Structure formats: structure tokens, C-alpha cells
Amino acid sequence: MQSGEHNTKGAMQSQGASSSAQKLESEQCKKKGKATERRRKFIQFFAMLVYNADARHWFSGTISRSPLKRVCVPGLNCYSCPGAIASCPLGSLQNTIGNGRVPFFITGFLLLTGTLLGRMVCGFLCPVGLVQELLYKIPSRKVRKTKKLLAVTRKVSLLKYVLLAIFVVMLPLIFYFKDGLGSPFFCKFVCPAGTVGAGLPLVMLNEHLRAAIGWLFTWKTTLALTFIVWSIFMFRPFCRFFCPLGAIYSFFNKVAIFGIRVDATKCTHCNACVAGCGMDTLTVNDRECIRCEECRKRCKFGAI
Questions:
Q1: How far from each other are the two terminal CA atoms of the chain, in whole angstroms?
Q2: How many CB atoms are located within 10 Å of the residue 2 CB?
Q3: I need a surface site. Which of 57, 143, 146, 242 has the fewest CB within 10 A?
Q4: What is the pLDDT of residues 236-256, one digit of tens each?
């Protein structure tokens, strides 16, 4: 009897020790996750400030004439933002195609950035992503992630590839051959970054631009407000469903030099890492993964 009691007590003590160790590890993971998120937010804010570093034009009603506008920043930041010191890669690609030129420079820039970072750009270096994340922090009822919804959102996320093909490449090229000059159709009709970061500030501060407001500005403002409200209830909807730049970078996610790596010897395939992912990734580093490192604090096995 005494031997049996000793065995039972030993088992209970062992279970208690194991439970305490798991609890301690879980708390450490949470602390590490919070530190990682603070670091990421700092990088996001810093990138946004660097992209828009010409503070002289912030409230001038005019746009910066920075000589650096001959080059691009990695993230989505409109050329026409008052303080923007460089160009948006997506706008540059459309304008180059629309002018009938082969986009050697911007293609090389996207290839280099994609090879180095993949969609890490979306998670760390994109002001549009940062704004959506801040909006999502507003207390409200959120769209809950379910298996049925995941199946739908994964399919809808393919829309950004359609927009890339049609609005960024095909339409500027078609109108160049038709009229001799193509427009940046995605920037002109869809992108909310230009509306929020450039259109609204310039119109508010420039009387001549206010006098020129027409149906296009009304449409873009309505669309931008839709994205703003949507972002309060759903995590980064523009990035997930509409952003062609994210679509481009997603092609490099599997091969990018910097990013998330999974240690196959430690991974148990429990899928805890992606179960609560706001971007609806199915596996770490798939096309929707923005390398935000949220998965690292969910992994109890240190596999990421």
C-alpha cells in the first residue's frame, strides 16, 4: 500500500512540475511576444516617418520635390503624399508601363527586395499595413475566424493577383497602345493610400485642388472610408484581398533570405502557429504570411 501511495504521489508531483514548467514557458513566450510586437511597431512607425521625411511639405498643400523620388521605397507610400521623399514601387511600375517603357529599374528593385525580404515588407515596412493594424486595435466586435470563413477569405485573397494583372500591368499597357499614354489605373481607381495620405491632405490645404474635385475624388474617398471602417472589424483587409504589391512580394516568400524559419526537428505540426493568424496563413511562409512573428509566441516547442 505504501509503495502504491509513494508511486501516486511521485506521479502527481511529476505532473505538477510539468504543469508549472509549461505555465512558466507560456508566460515567457507571452513576454517575448509583447517585446517582439513593440519592436515591430517601432520599425513600422520609423519606416513611415522615413518615407515621409520632408516635413516642410506636411501642411503646405503641395508635394515634396525630393530628388530621391527617382528611386522607390519598399512599402506602399504614395508619390503624392506631401512629405514623401521617394516613389511608390507600385505607382512607378504602372507609370513606366503606361509610358511605353520597359520597367527595368523597378523590376530589378522588386526582385531584389522580394529576394531579401518577401512579404516581410508588408509586416514591417508598409505604412498602409500599420494604419490598418492601429484601426483594428479600436475596441469593437471583430469578425471571428472560422473554418468556413477561412475557406472563403483564402479564395478572395486571390483577388489581389487579378488586380495586379489587370490594373497594374494590362490596362496601362492597353491604353498605351491605344492612346499613346496609359494611366496608373490601380492608383487612380482603387488604392486608398493615395487618397488618405495625399488626396485628402492636399485638398484640405490647397484651394485650387478643392475647386477641381469631381466624381473620381468622391469615389476614391468613399472607397478609402470603406477600407477604414472595414479595418476596424477585420485584420488588414486591404493587404489580404486588394494589394498588388503584397501579391508581388508573396512570390518570394518561400525563397526570401530573411524571414521566418521552421525547425522541422522541433515542429509537431500542431498548427498552433497559424490557428489564430490574422492573415489566414495555412502554413508559415505561405503566400499570405507577412513574417510578423506572431506565430513565434504561439509555438510552445521553440520550432520557429
A1: 47
A2: 6
A3: 146
A4: 999 999 999 999 999 999 999
| Spatial distance between the Cα atoms of 194 and 221, rounded to a whole number of angstroms | 10
Cα dihedral 249, 255, 258, 261 sign:
positive
Whether the Cβ atoms of residue 113 and residue 125 lie closer than 8 Å to each other: no
User: What pLDDT digit, counting tens, does each position of 148-190 carry?
Assistant: 999 999 999 999 999 999 999 999 999 999 999 999 999 999 9
Q: How far apart are CA 78 and CA 87, in angstroms?
A: 7
Which residues contact residue 102 at a Cβ distance below 8 angstroms, ignoring those fewer than 6 apart?
96
Question: What is the C-alpha separation between 93 and 7, in angstroms, rounded?
Answer: 71
For residue 204, give every residue at least 6 positions away whose Cβ sits within 8 Å of its Cβ, in sequence order, or none. 61, 210
Given phi > 0 = left and psi -120 to 50 = alpha, else beta, which region is 132? Answer: alpha
Scanning the structure block, which residue is given the C-alpha cell 479595418?
A: 231
CA distances from 167 to 22, 57, 186, 261 (A): 50, 30, 5, 33
In sequence order, the β-bridge partners of residue 72 are: 87
DSSP H or E stretch at residue 185: helix 185-189
Tell me whether residue 137 is exposed, middle or buried, using C-beta atoms within 10 angstroms of its C-beta: 0 to 12, 13 to 18, 19 or more.
Answer: exposed
Long-range contacts of 97-101 (CB under 8 A, 24+ apart): 97/168, 97/169, 97/172, 97/173, 97/176, 97/182, 98/172, 98/173, 98/175, 98/176, 98/181, 98/182, 98/183, 98/184, 99/176, 99/181, 99/182, 100/176, 100/180, 100/182
